[in-house]
## 1
Amino acid sequence: MTNEALQELVGNWLPELEFTEEESQFLNIHVSPQNLHTLMSQLKSNPETQFDYLFCLSGVDWGEKLGIVYHLESTSKRHIVVVKVTTEDRENPVLDTVYDIWATAEFHEREVFDFFGIRFNNHPNLKRLFLTEDWVGYPLRKDYEDDINMILH
Amino acid sequence: MIQLSITENIHNWLFSIMPEGVASIVEMVLIAVVYLTIFAVTGLFLVLLERRVAAWFQLRIGPNRVGFQGLLQTMADAIKLLTKELTGTERADKFLYNLAPYFVIISALMALAVIPFTKEFHAFDINIGIFFLIAISSIGVIGILLGGWSSNNKFALIGAMRSGVQTISYELSVGLSLLTMVVITGTLQLSEIIEFQKNGWLIVQGHIPAIIAFMVFMISGTAETNRAPFDMVEAESELGAGFHTEYSGMKFAYFFLAEFINMFIIAAIATTMFFGGWLSPFGITESLPWLGVFWFLAKTMGLVFLMMWFRWTFPRLRVDQLLTLEWKYLLPINLVNIVVMALIVWLNLTIRF
Amino acid sequence: METEVVNTNFKSEEYFINMGPQHPATHGVLRLLLTIDGEIIKKVEPDLGYIHRSIEKMCERDSYQQIVHLTDRMDYLSANINNEAVCLAVENALQLEIPERVKVIRTIIGELTRISSHCLWWGVMGMDVGALTTYFYGFRDREMINDIMEETCGARLTMNYNVPGGLMLDIHPNFVKRVKDFITHFKTKLPEYDRLLTGNIIFQKRTIGVGILSKEDAISFGASGPVGRASGYSCDVRKHHPYSAIDKVTFNEVLKTEGDTYARYLVRIQEMWESLSIIEQLIDNIPEGEHRVTTNAVIKLPKGEFYQKVETARGELGVYIISTGTKNPYRLKFRSPGFSNLSLLNHIAVGGKIGDLVATMATLDLVIPDIDR
């Protein structure tokens, strides 16, 4: 499906979705944290979109907000869409997990928790993945400081 | 016939110098020393042979620096093992822990004593020869189980249990395939079996069932000594190194050497029962009975090479597949084979020269 | 008075085994915590992070040429293809016109890297199931490729031959001849591999029906590469999102449906044949031209987000760059194939035996630096 058709179809499902195609190869959908899970499950189950392959889940620190970028692809129709969600709360960010929709999200969300500190509701095993259990801080955030381990130009 | 009656001469000389009791004891000590030397030298040589053969299969050279063509390599390894610290676990059962390697060595030595190297070089020629051999090889299992139990280590215990199960299962096949050959010879005594083979080696005399018995014997023999492709127990070293995890230094060397000697014994038994022992093919060197040692060693080394070939080519069987192989395939084949062999002997269909 | 500690995820007959970070068969430093009942596995939990070097954080302060040097430390067996991924992402963002010569050479070297990685995989696979000789045979053939790489690129493992804009140096004059010699040599060796391992009944008993992965699970877990293709899931990036000179050659995507360990094994062996055929189609007609397009000394990507997918020997590698117009990326994320392949280990190993776990892990072909980054 083309980007316009996708935009039209998905725009009818939920209010408050922002679509943009600038500065990106694919169609980007911004969604609010409350609607995240409904949008994702519909993207997967709807027979016209059928996004059954989540191939990249990245955490991003946008400066003031923390966010996640999901890259979705459909193995039958071969279209790609990008879903972005952000939260303003830097002290205690919480989002919904998509593990029940795509099983690959389990490890990816653990990695995001490890490096950014975003917690996920209903995640089966939310522990740090790469760093040790007693590590303090979230390294990939922009305001992370570590005099011993970091060398800056 | 040129006979070097060394054993007779030594026997008479000893009995002429000392009183009877002492002379018998000295004789026994002498024989024990000779056999211990054979044990040690064979073990050393086999370890080196395994490394060179493995290297040949793997397109490399192997140890060839220490001594001529690496012959002193195992000596160097033995010296290293002797100087290692003997770490034992704290709560291991000290007595059983120290006793376990000796069981394995003693059973290997006792089996060596019964094997005929040549006409006069035969330490213990009892009338139940082959039966004795099968019985002795069962004693080695005790050493394995004791070693695993007394180490006070749960992985060693599991490894020992598995190894014990494997050995006990495959002993059945070993025994039955040897009994198949006894049906032809009609006698259990090893020197008489070899005399019987002067009319042609047993594998030729018994044709089809003998060849099947030989193949079953080689498979079960390899499995009984825990060698690849049946070494899941000890090569699972990612999890637990089997029953000899907690042994180090000389005690580990005992287990290690005993495995190689067991391999030699299996090959020696196969040579005796199937390929004529120390007899030369077509009787070409009949007049020099002491050349029998050379023929015996040549045949045994050929079979040892075959066992090494198995190890470096085949993948490993999983533990449950191992036991399935024995109980569902080898055992029925063996039983049918004995019946077939009995029929052939009864109907006089054996090949004789 | 002692109180009893009750561990809720541990029944009394089960015991706990650690397949520690040091392995005899070097998949890398991976620690697996196994919960076992007798011989049956109840739960597998990987413990990662032993070789985590924070590559993604380092990329936020490095220039784009420097980032290329970091990528071949990730999955060191497909080093060239990793470099190609970042170079392609940068070149597509800058919309550079890459000469045909560069594309063809990149594809040839990429396929050679794939064969080299599969050779090593085959050797280690044999070693894991117990046939210890296969290790040496795999490495012997890999040596020929390493020598070719050393002559052209200067290094045997971390080649760094690709730069944004083309190749660092032109290929050595002996390159074409040596590659052709290699192809002739290797075509006689692959049947030898089949005789040694593929047709062996013991090997087949260890691998057929073991570690079955269905197609839906493969898609849901994000499996890619030979792991996905063995379950019938068509996921070859070279077919769906072609790059470099791949669209000029014809090759088959190897698919099987059973999804067990033996199918994954056969897929990789067949992929080696396909790679040989791709190289053969390209090696005789390398177009003339420049080997490098000049870029600025300081590369600044325009503002925006860029994603590039390539097919490494392990599966689909993704490079996701968020740039704000400066000389360093704002965020760079590597989507590594091993990461998703490892997450399905718990799903397919539960219910099998320990020996099956070893065989299954060998066919998942994990390289831990790729997962830990």
## 2
Amino acid sequence: MGDDELKKVANEVRRGIVTSVHAAKSGHPGGSLGAADIITYLYFEEMDVDPADPHKAGRDRFVLSKGHCAPALYSALACRGFFPKEDLETLRHIGSHLQGHPNMNDTPGVDMSTGSLGQGISAAVGMALAAKHWGDSYRTYCLLGDGEIEEGQVWEAAMFAGNHALDNLCLIVDHNGLQIDGTIEEVNSAMPIADKFRAFKFHVIEVADGNDFEQIRAAFAEARATKGAPTCIVAETVKGKGVSFMENNVGWHGKAPNDEQFEQAMAELEKEA
Amino acid sequence: MADVKKIATRASYGEALVELGAEHDDFVVLDADLAAATQTGKFKAAYPDRFFDAGIAEENMMGIAAGIATTGRVAFASTFAMFAAGRAFEQVRNSIGYPHLNVKIGATHAGISVGEDGATHQCCEDVALMRTIPGMTVIVPSDDVEAKAAVRAAYEMDGPVYMRFGRLAVPVFNDEETYEFEIGRGVKLREGSDVTIVACGLMVQAALEAADTLADRGIDAEVINIHTIKPLDEDIIVESAKKTGRVVTCEEHSIIGGLGDAVLAALAEKHPVPVKKVGVMDTFGESGPAVDLLHKYGLDAEGVTAAVEAFMA
């Protein structure tokens, strides 16, 4: 799929995010919009997955360690055909298969239950380790937040992945610089992120614009070609990307748009499409 | 009793893993830098390529085990009870329990019989913590035979399991040839009519010895081994309570939230009778030889005997 086509899909994914969070009247639109391009690339270009057979044995795995960005994952899965797009409007509703944070036993295409920050990466490491041990060829991708990596468990997992040279593992740090209580610098910065992962024996790829498909494509190609070490892509993204009043505004970390804001957000996205 | 064989259930765990490893290659064993103590070192020696050391990082170990289990295989994850159920509680809840993954937690060095290491390592809260997790099976084996059977049963069943093992060598009283272990099914070890003693772990042996002493003193005690705290065999307990009218629970665990409370809840709903809980009395442990500690905290045959006599008075 070419970059122009990916952009169109990502726009559709973004509209799904805004629609679902609006319908839920709660949720996390900012991080979801910022990570939409990376997740779109994974599900429409990078990963070997089959919507008709979500549990296909040899499929590539994706773990959304920053599980609060479930709206992005759900929208990408719906756009990819894992379940009807109409389901997005049931996000966070009682009885819906779309829980506030992803659950692998509820939603087709979700490979791991996540939401408690710092835990998804360990599961991803386990998946990669299992592939190495039993000779499976799948790759494992794991998206982390730049606030999430303040959790100590992330570094326990990184230490293990580096020491075991899990080159079938690709982490992506969604580096938008914002967390709930403020900028990551104000709160408790994990900077310098790239140097830290290098010190943990990762091959690190820094992506200046994690919302640009050309750069995303190059990074994942390099990750795939990297042998003997796990890869960590540190991608600079814009939180709230695609909706003007949400961009770089930490106030939209975990808040749903009201009807008026929803109309404006959808109008902006539709104009882009 | 001099010729009674004594084996720590942690040793049984290590041996059972080796035996299982000879039959199946769809599982791996993880530890967190305690392989010699948890006895997974035996498995490591037998199958070095199927053993992974997470280092001193229990939270990550639980997550890795969960990730492995998502691929349809089984992961045994081992460390001390304090770190398995305590430190990594939330990882066990969210990464293993919530997705109901096939992770089998082998938690050793449970209870005050850890001994000299003292209170920081004497986990008396693990059963309480683990049994609150939906879908978690909690097993507290009483001896070598039962511990080995539990490891095999845990491997064979679908879903997460917490197995509680001890450091102290304890008498082997179950017959390896005839003993039939079934998860969730209690075992009546002694018939009695005056009082029911429900026990788990090393307290089963203490209860049996206490029952002998009590018999000499005119108290006819029934003894039931509840090796599976969850799911609890309520039927065997209720049936016995209907006969004896009094129940004493015995566990090397806090009296809050463990076997005692599980039994109490079942009886309160189905057949209320007076219940006495014998366990660690809402206090931390301390350093000392295991046997001396068990005595001091009333967790030996003498302590159980005294508690039952006082209860019956």
## 3
Amino acid sequence: MTTTEIHPAIVPNFDEETGGGRKLAIICSKGNLDMAYPGLVLANAALGEGVDTHMFFTFWGFDMITKSRMDHLQFSPAGNTAMHMPIGDAHLPQALAPLPGMTAMATRMLKKSIADLGVPEVPEFLDQIVAAGGHLWACRMSADMNHLVEADLRDDVEGIISASDFIEKTEGAQLLFI
Amino acid sequence: MPVTEIDSHQIHVDDEGFLTEYDEWDENLAVVLANRIGIELTDAHWRVIRFLRDDYRTQGDTATTRRVQAVGGVPVKEQFALFPKKPAKRMAYIAGLPKPHGCV
């Protein structure tokens, strides 16, 4: 019988500060359902790693935080050549993509795939991000363009701020534009 | 896989110190593991740890913070309060489970 080598106890270091407090800024500029998720998944992951995370919603991304629109984000296969059919690995011909009903069908399919993974819908995902300590900011220009005010947005949006304000708030942050 | 000794138990761990053998864990060991990362276990912590253990046994994977909320019933905010900064990893470590593989 061989003797087992006993190593000194290994304790993970969960308090380690990488680069003195990492910070991440995510600019969400898309309002299509499929393009809402990358920012949400990354923000959630960053928060879970103790990273100070700020999200800035601008242009079409504004729909993600607008009460009247956030539950109705859609996914269209038009212009998306990577759209596969649910069976096999066939591509959806682009000529079919603009047909009536196609966006609704593709949206349903995508929502189901996401739900099957236990991943929440956009508003609930933002609830979770805020619960995890994430910060939500709305773009001043987008609000003005859409004639929207704070009352039209999720209550946990911390403010409608200018681009300069966001740049100032995220000094030293790593930045993602989606 | 390194073998390490904690509280006079010999246990298998990965390179970061997470237990690799489900059955080498018991609740006494959890107390020691928690203390090592600066956490004093309360009933609220135990509720999460026991959920993680049971869920792993049936699912074969460590629950993410999302799952601990959606299925385990412990809100994400509370998880961050109980297991600060990196809740998913801290919870897994104390529960003697691998880090979660899921993205959300």
## 4
Amino acid sequence: MAINLVKGQKIDLTKGRSGLSSVMIGLGWDPVAKDKEKKKSGGFLGGLLGGGGGGGASVDCDASVLLLDEKGKLQSKQNLIYFGNKKSQDGSVVHSGDNLTGDGAGDDETINVNLSAIPPSVHKLVFVVNIYQAQQRKQDFGLIQNAFIRLVDNSSKEELIHYNLTENYAGKTSLIPGELYRHGSEWKFSAIGEGTLDPDISSIANKYL
Amino acid sequence: MGVNLSKGQKVDLTKSNPGLVNVTVGVGWDTNKYDGGKDFDLDSSVFLLAGNGKCASEKDFIFYNNATGGDGSVVHTGDNKTGEGDGDDEQVNINLSTVPSTIEKIAFSITIHDAESRGQNFGQVSNSYVRIMNADSQEELIRYDLGEDFSIETAVVVGELYRHNNEWKFNAIGSGYQGGLGALIQDFGLN
């Protein structure tokens, strides 16, 4: 049984699960009211009223991970794992690739993490979802619903943690769903659920330099 | 060097520091590490408790709107609305020698103002602590870092000073509550 978290909740991950090492972090989201948008975009009024709705372009969300050191800093660009740099240097964190639409049920993007292979210099994995070209496309997280982050044990396929981001993130262009972090010799997960105004992933990464 | 306590630990205060009369109890916290969130307003409060563990009257609940109690022996120095900056965010000064004899315990709490409507809890608060200083020398005597002890709670009783054989001791309680300050007030016998 997965544990459903609420915003702010912190939970042990490896404590009591000594064999746990290979985990999948699944991130998902859905476009809001897609049917309505389609109908509108056909007509004259739809063209006028749809102006605030992203101009009809689909929303492309991207998941990324920042691998931070003990002081919460990003030591090099290699420690930003995203669709353009899908694998950490030691192979302990692997992004499975870009999903351009967010259509369909289940995870939209997944990241595999081998906890025991993460170098000791990395203390925290911050997961980020941001909207690709949010400014150019005039899009924000008001166009997205049902965002979640979940964590699955790759060997048993058991879902261990699930956190639904239930707040209204309208106006925000980046989301920080959660963090994996070291606590003593164990790993814990924190349900962050904060939206930020960062227009892209490099803007977020710059904050940790 | 102060003594670092862990949750549940009890230590002597006046016995190991002879002559200690004036203490400052400081509490601190950091919040809001991501820029999207609402402001946090954490409040510290003090409950002066009789032998039955309850406040005898509303006067024994010391907070930003009732900053002095215990016949002037306990003084809250005021509200800090953002938690910004280093060091203690709020402080309470206590003259241990003039605390009325009916007061057996002095409990310290930290609560999040408007936690429910702002969707906030202690999982979003980091580095919170309580410490006790000798008010005259400013030496830190006792410190309890709350660390990872809390996440979804909105009120925490961080610790209490209590009488023990004519001395004062400190107990690092670390009990969390989900009902905010309201739950604490009821728990301590007030409405």
